[in-house]
Amino acid sequence: MKETLQELGLYIKDTLGRDVLDVRMHKDELCIYVRREGLVKVMGFLHDDGNCLFRLLMDISGVDYPERRERFDVVYQLLSLRHNQRIRVKVATDEVTPVPSIVGVFPAAGWFEREAWDMYGVFFAGNPDLRRILTDYGFDGHPQRKDFPLTGYVEVRYDPEKRRVVYEPVQLQQAFRTFDFLSPWEGIPYEMNTNRVEEKKAS
């Protein structure tokens, strides 16, 4: 299977030319790195070509690398039932540059692209219904980004007096603390006063 996928990767790169930036095998899985502007063309080829026939889009996800200029990878997981093969396609982008929508090739991509937009803020040009899908419509930010605060910006609760859900700035009840969790079995860091214990027993 590994050799077959390697041959397929070379075939895809030779056929599509400059639209495929790189082809790599990682843990016996084929990963194709695609130029953003050529994404729709590459996806159409993978869907229709007789040597590929990747007709099922299994997932679209995001990966955040804040230290990179193009901080996001959009990752597409494809499956070919005809050839019993899976491949991964990756496209890099930044916070403002849109990625072409592949809804025209894979209609199921609409929901996946909405999730990537909601969680990472990656904009998909051409998606007919790019709205939030997991968070509230008034949600501030994109919670899967690595620079998004763990506490969020607002908290939501039901107010019985107003009889509706209200949004309020996050208020922590105590200062943020860090725990080392080195050894949960060390117990209390001080010695008990055994004399006082004995005095209590005597009284």
Distinct helical segment count = 4
CATH architecture label? 2-Layer Sandwich
Work out the number of β strands.
Answer: 9
Number of domains: 1
Low-confidence stretches: none
In the sheet with the most strands, the strands line up as 1-2-5-4-3
Q: Helical residue percent?
A: 10-25%
Largest sheet: 5 strands, mixed
> How large a portion of the residues is in β-strands, by DSSP E?
25-35%
List the helices and strands and how they pair.
Elements: H1 2-16, E1 20-26, E2 29-34, H2 39-48, E3 56-64, E4 72-80, E5 85-93, E6 99-100, H3 109-120, E7 124-125, E8 154-159, E9 164-169, H4 194-202
Parallel strand pairs: 2-5, 6-7
Antiparallel strand pairs: 1-2, 3-4, 4-5, 8-9
Please outline what is shown here.
The chain has 203 residues and is of the alpha/beta class. It has helices at 2-16, 39-48, 109-120, 194-202; strands at 20-26, 29-34, 56-64, 72-80, 85-93, 99-100, 124-125, 154-159, 164-169. The model has no long low-confidence stretch (mean pLDDT 87).
